[in-house]
Amino acid sequence: MKQDYFSANNIKYIDYKDIEILKKFLNPNGKIMNHKRTGVTAKNQRQLTSAVKRARFLGLLPFVAK
Amino acid sequence: MPKAEIKEEIEVADARVYELGYLLVPTITDENIGAVYTNLKDLIQDFGGAIIIDEMPKMTPLNYSMLKVVSNIRNKFNNAYFGWIKFEMDTEKVLELKKKLDLDPNLIRFLIIKTVRENTIATKRFVGRDTYRKRPAYTKREGAVPVEINKEEIDKEIDALAAV
């Protein structure tokens, strides 16, 4: 993913309920990927991080996946 | 009169858009879930909130088991009803709402966040199209390799075929 995924798809606000989108940015262990791998802008990477953490709190995403 | 007007303006200025995401206990039956859901909406309206969008709680599997202590008994949950409500409310009232929700025995967990009025869910619009786009890119690369064959060789082969 060279270009920023969210600006390419015109997503202005990253929602914690969009699990299918958030899953693209997790590695097989459930960790959030590095911004160098995601290619997301710094601003969107911060939004993405908080969205993933909210989804984890509500059990929509795992903290650790085996 | 002017005083009342000023007060109203302040109230409007202090209002913010929030979202309440919640997990309900799976022991609630399907018949009662509607009642619990409307109770939550009524509670928000009691605190002066205006509901913008909401979704019915749906049964979802949790990615890890959650604990909730009800009357000194530890309950473990692997499933829950997940629902959310987007609403506009005074900044001060939200804290009161949080205190009230803390005491609710039907909720396993909840989350109140600041958000925007516009629809923020993008999954339905983009996920399908994105995966569809990726496939032709791979086939093009595979197809591009045989183009680099010598034209002379092809001409010879055609000539040979034509001669037969």
UniProtKB/TrEMBL annotation, chain A:
Binds as a heterodimer with protein bS6 to the central domain of the 16S rRNA, where it helps stabilize the platform of the 30S subunit. The lineage of its organism: Bacteria, Candidatus Nomuraibacteriota. GO terms for biological process: translation. Signal peptide: none annotated. Pfam families: Ribosomal_S18 (PF01084). This is Small ribosomal subunit protein bS18. InterPro entries: Ribosomal_bS18, Ribosomal_bS18_sf. GO terms for molecular function: small ribosomal subunit rRNA binding; structural constituent of ribosome. Keywords: Ribonucleoprotein, Ribosomal protein, RNA-binding, rRNA-binding. Belongs to the bacterial ribosomal protein bS18 family.
UniProtKB/TrEMBL annotation, chain B:
GO terms for biological process: translation. GO terms for molecular function: rRNA binding; structural constituent of ribosome. Keywords: Ribonucleoprotein, Ribosomal protein, RNA-binding, rRNA-binding. Binds together with bS18 to 16S ribosomal RNA. CDD domains: bS6 (cd00473). Pfam families: Ribosomal_S6. This is Small ribosomal subunit protein bS6. It comes from the Bacteria. InterPro entries: Ribosomal_bS6, Ribosomal_bS6_sf, Ribosomal_S6_plastid/chlpt, Transl_elong_EF1B/ribsomal_bS6. Belongs to the bacterial ribosomal protein bS6 family. GO terms for cellular component: ribonucleoprotein complex; ribosome.
